[in-house]
């Protein structure tokens, strides 16, 4: 063996001297799983290459955006053309409306939208808009759901339904989170009770429809139905955070799947990010026209951004959405993703390892548990040490998965049947070690 880790180690040392933890977003630092992060030098199709020259099959996909894999020719061409025309104008461009039209076409609950630069901004702005539109202060979020790092959302549950949350980050004053109520995901009775206690003050309920920030946990149909009905009854807005699921689980997002099960289902506001920007800093929030018209310059709710609707980012997003809107795109992607989960489950069962998984479109999750969890408390039953062994075992065999137990995985249209087979074979070898 050569000293294969050396280039990554050297880059990590350099980065740590200059950037807190050596990374620009904490999960990248491998703190949960230990070891040195792979420093990526390039990506092509389903693969990444790191500084050691290792080829890795990529199931992180930049945490969701890279649904076409890396370096898709149609996207590259659109981006190159846009760059040649100029980086940023701070003035409107036609492409912003083209992208808005493409989004609205696939998501009928979005009548108007605004482009921003990150999912965090989308969440922060959607909440301000919900508060402004309703004239109320309180917001409801769910344990284990992540909606970006806006102050009011960095909060954990208080001691009961009458008590609001506590800040989970230093630097967030308690006063900023005192209007955030954190409830258990998929608990209809608790949501009903919260509305019974605070209904007249609740501006919005915000939720991930398939929670990818606790690996992969679906909102049950009764839970989603209750959220919609309670919001309507009490005059609160339902915000569905599709930053991860939008264009990823289905062309119309997760909301299109719930609309098939719940007659008339539609959120009031939707957050988008990740796939909508195709790998560039672009996100959006949108919804009912009369709500969106509360935004400046039409209405009293302020929201802005120097780089919002950036011409290069919109070109990238538009080219990406046009590809994912091709006939059968999601059906093919879903089939491949299901094949991966089924292969992992089979290999684990053969080797005597308890594993269960789930997927929708190109989003997936698996747990070293006998049954799928339904909320964050159940997700916490997972054995972190075993997960870390699985993670490192896969990485050593050239398979790059999220370096944390609480993260969903992503398959792209560039992943071939051969990539899936190679991944399952690598996992089988790791399961054998885990079982012994
Ligand atoms: N909402 C969800 C569901 C997310 O998964 C994320 C990021 O992972 C965000 C919001 C925040 O997006 P960003 O990281 O672009 O700020």
Automatic annotation (TrEMBL):
Recorded metabolic or biological pathway in which this protein acts: Porphyrin-containing compound metabolism; protoporphyrin-IX biosynthesis; 5-aminolevulinate from L-glutamyl-tRNA(Glu): step 2/2
Main location: cytoplasm
Reactions that this protein is recorded to catalyse: (S)-4-amino-5-oxopentanoate = 5-aminolevulinate
Cited Pfam families: Aminotran_3
An annotated GO cellular component: cytoplasm
Gene3D superfamilies in UniProt: Aspartate Aminotransferase, domain 1 (3.90.1150.10), Type I PLP-dependent aspartate aminotransferase-like (Major domain) (3.40.640.10)
GO terms of biological process kind: protoporphyrinogen IX biosynthetic process
Superkingdom to which the source organism belongs: Bacteria
Listed EC numbers: 5.4.3.8
SUBUNIT field: Homodimer.
PANTHER family for this protein: GLUTAMATE-1-SEMIALDEHYDE 2,1-AMINOMUTASE, GLUTAMATE-1-SEMIALDEHYDE 2,1-AMINOMUTASE 1, CHLOROPLASTIC-RELATED
Protein name: Glutamate-1-semialdehyde 2,1-aminomutase
């Amino acid at each position: 063996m050569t000293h294969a880790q050396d280039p990554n180690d050297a880059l990590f040392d350099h980065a740590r001297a200059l950037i807190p933890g050596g990374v620009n977003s904490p999960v990248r630092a491998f703190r949960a799983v230990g070891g040195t992060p792979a420093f990526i030098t390039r990506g092509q199709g389903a693969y990444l290459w790191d500084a050691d020259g290792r080829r890795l099959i990529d199931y992180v996909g930049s945490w969701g955006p890279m649904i076409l894999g890396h370096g898709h020719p149609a996207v590259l061409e659109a981006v190159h053309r846009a760059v040649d025309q100029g980086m940023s104008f701070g003035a409107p461009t036609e492409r912003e409306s083209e992208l808005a039209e493409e989004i609205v076409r696939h998501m009928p609950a979005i009548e108007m939208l605004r482009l921003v630069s990150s999912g965090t901004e989308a969440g922060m702005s959607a909440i301000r808009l919900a508060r402004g539109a309703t004239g109320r202060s309180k917001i409801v979020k769910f344990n284990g759901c992540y909606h970006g790092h806006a102050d009011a959302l960095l909060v954990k549950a208080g001691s009961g339904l009458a008590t609001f949350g506590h800040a989970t980050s230093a630097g967030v004053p308690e006063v900023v989170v005192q209007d955030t109520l954190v409830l258990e995901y998929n608990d209809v009775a608790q949501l009903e009770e919260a509305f019974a206690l605070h209904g007249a003050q609740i501006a919005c309920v915000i939720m991930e429809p398939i929670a990818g920030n606790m690996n992969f946990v679906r909102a049950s149909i009764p839970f989603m139905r209750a959220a919609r009905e309670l919001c309507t009854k009490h005059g609160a807005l339902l915000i569905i955070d599709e930053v991860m699921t939008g264009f990823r689980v289905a062309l119309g997002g997760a909301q299109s799947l719930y609309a098939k099960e719940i007659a008339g289902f539609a959120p009031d506001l939707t957050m988008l990010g990740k796939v909508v920007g195709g790998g560039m800093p672009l996100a959006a929030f949108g919804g009912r026209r009369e709500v969106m018209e509360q935004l400046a310059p039409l209405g009293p709710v302020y929201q802005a951004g120097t780089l919002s609707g950036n011409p290069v980012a919109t070109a990238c997003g538009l080219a990406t959405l046009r590809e994912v809107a091709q006939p059968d795109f999601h059906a093919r992607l879903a089939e491949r993703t299901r094949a991966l989960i089924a292969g992992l489950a089979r290999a684990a069962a053969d080797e005597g390892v308890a594993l269960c998984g789930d997927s929708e479109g190109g989003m997936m999750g698996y747990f070293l548990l006998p049954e799928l969890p339904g909320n964050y408390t159940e997700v916490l039953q997972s054995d972190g040490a075993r997960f870390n062994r699985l993670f490192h075992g896969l990485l050593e065999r050239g398979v790059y998965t999220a370096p944390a137990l609480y993260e969903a995985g992503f398959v792209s249209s560039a992943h071939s049947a051969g990539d899936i087979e190679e991944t399952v074979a690598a996992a089988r070898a790791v399961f054998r070690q885990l079982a012994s």
